[in-house]
Amino acid sequence: MANSQVFDEKLKNKVKADLLQVIILGLESKNLTLAGMKASANYILDHIEKINNYSQFLVFMNLLKTKWKVFENVYKIYNHISDQDKEKEVINKLQSFIKSQN
């Protein structure tokens, strides 16, 4: 998932399911109030359809976790995936460069 990757429907649906799960767990654990649930759900629904790539998604997730701390772990997971993809890109470029020098 490189940062320029399209934020497709499959990924969008997975993210929606993950965020819904966080909302449910947040309510059950009392880490999210009913007002927080409503506000965060509205925020998610208002913004998620406007996301076109992974970079925009990470900005969205960063804002979401800043507004509602309960989403912080989901942000960390998706940000970590992004970091892993960046590392893979660098490794692939280095391997290509090394091969071209031989």
Notes on the structure:
- This protein is mainly alpha-helical and 102 residues long.
- The chain has one domain (9-101).
- It contains 4 helices and no strands.
- The chain has helices spanning 9-28, 34-47, 54-67, 72-101.
- The chain is elongated.
- The relative contact order is 0.15.
Structural class of the helices, strands and pairings?
mainly alpha
The oligomerization state is single chain
Mean pLDDT: 85
CA-to-CA gap between the ends? 30 Å
The secondary-structure element order is HHHH
The main pleated sheet reads as: none
Computed CA radius of gyration, to the nearest angstrom: 17 Å
Shape: elongated
Estimate percent helicity: over 70%
Task: Give the SSE map.
Elements: H1 9-28, H2 34-47, H3 54-67, H4 72-101
Task: Write a concise synopsis of the structure shown.
By secondary structure, the chain is mostly helical. 76% of the residues lie in helices and 0% in strands.
Feature tags:
102 residues, mainly alpha, 76% helix
